[in-house]
Amino acid sequence: MTLDERVRLAKKQQTQVQAKLRQAAQGATLRAIEKAVALTPPTMNDLSGANTRTGELKQRWVTDSKFKPQKRGAMYVTELNNNRPYASYVNDGHRMDKHFVPGLHVNPGSGQLEYTPGADVGIVVGTKTAYVKGKYMVEAAKEEYRRVLKQELEGLEELIE
Q1: What is the pLDDT of residues 133-145, one digit of tens each?
Q2: With 0-12 CB in 10 A as exposed, 13-18 as middle and 19+ as buried, what is 108?
Q3: How distant, in Å, are the alpha carbons of 3, 74, 134, 160 from that of 7?
Q4: Across-strand partners of 70?
Q5: Which terminus of the chain is more exposed, N or C, with fewer CB under 10 A?
Q6: Which whole-number Å values give the CA distances from 11 to 36, 53, 157, in the listed order?
């Protein structure tokens, strides 16, 4: 094999390896997003929590994350993001101190908890539990990313040989 042929082969292999790396990074990030979504409340087993009923926290993994790899230097970068202000509290856990919430009240007609800003009522909340355990969605998603990336990159050596 001549030097020119060897250079052409190396360039072809480099293109194939880069395409495989991009594809693997995207696939692993999509699986990580799916894992984070699956573990984020509300889940089938747990509907507790004031901010978990709407499902917005769960939806934001998909809209805020960047799963298409961007080349930065010699790396391909993807991002697992959730920009809701309370996402870290759900992930990591948090203390629950007793505190007064003005405007929060139980509607006497329906028995439902309601929030009316500016009302002359309020309730002390946070008395049931002192600490809410985290769901650790990010850690599980990172582990899923690593697992899938390793699986996707098996056989990469064959492209290089």
Answers
A1: 999 999 999 999 9
A2: exposed
A3: 6, 20, 53, 13
A4: 77
A5: C
A6: 37, 52, 15
